[in-house]
Design brief:
By secondary structure, the chain is of the alpha+beta class. Strands 1-4-3-2-5-6 form a 6-stranded antiparallel beta barrel. It has a 6-stranded mixed beta sheet with strand order 7-8-9-10-11-12, with helices on both faces. It is globular and about 70 Å long.
Length: 386
Amino acid sequence: MSSVPTISLLNNIIKSGVERSLSNLPLQGIVLGETIEATVLEKSAGNKYTVALKNSYIPATSNIPLNIGEKLVVKVNSLQPQIILNIINNKSQNGDAKINGNLLQWRANPEALLQVINKVAGFAKNLDKLDLPHAFSKSDVEKLVKLFDSIILSPRTKNNPLFLKDFISRVGLLLESSLKQSLSSYSHRGTEKTMEDNLKALLLKLSSSVNNILRENPQLDMEITAKLANITAFTDEALKTIEVSQVINSVFQDSENGIVLQVPVALADGFRLADIFITLDEKDEREKKKLSSCSVNVFLDLDILGRITVNANFREGGLNCIIKCEREEIMDLIKNNINELKTSLAQTGYRIGYIDCVQEDGLMDEREEFLARQSFFADQLVNYFA
């Protein structure tokens, strides 16, 4: 994969700054390094504009001329002492730049999916109180809420032996490597091949329905307009999170023959994310990847239990696994339950080799060290900042 030319990137940064004072900041959840969409609504004196960004109308200044109605893709380059948004030229932006942008957003906000999951309850409440057009039925609303519930590892889903497989299809992740080749023209509002029953397809359908209501009914009641705007903000955030995951999986497949999953886990104190990296080791005679022979690395932070990492190897029906934790009492707790774990795994058909738990300091850095060893992750970031 070719790197992004540094000089042209720096020229864009110099020439395309849009600045916004931090006073009375209406933005919520803005993340350094993320790429977002903006629309120029009006121009006042000089270089002053009003820009629609994250469902807020923001006064801004620009050091390049902007046109009313112009849609911009901007990257958050600074938060202090001012918010500085770098305008990205869509016409000249190539697929590598978009891939880099998504990689950077994933690194800058690795818990984006968790933030989406934490907003689902409020999102569902807003949906329940609105009469949406026939294009998005009550059945669609119920299906969408159930899909969010089905991608969370919880007492309701933990007994599903195909949970990870279902997770991939229900989120709407597109794992084929051709994804990155279409990034130069990709838009999360565009039309693409998706199954009907997945989060991405339904979120796209909902986004289209809500935008049609707002466009066709400019004089709506303020309370209804606010609810519709909140729904739009949520769908945009969720769709962007899925897009980032798609891109990560596309490049991880190409470079490491692997899959990256971030699975929400329901705990007593709320939701946490399990970061799962699956590296497929072999291919069959048709060059298809085989899940029967793979390495799995799992990174969790379970609050009471602390940080946990799992390194497992699956080889033709056999399983070997090392569990690492940071505290000795947690190691003893896990060791006391390992036989039960072995029994449960054996019942799924695996041939158990060894499973053990060890205490190890410094697990906070293990995920970053793991990522640094992955060629796609290190190369892309070095190329971007060179």
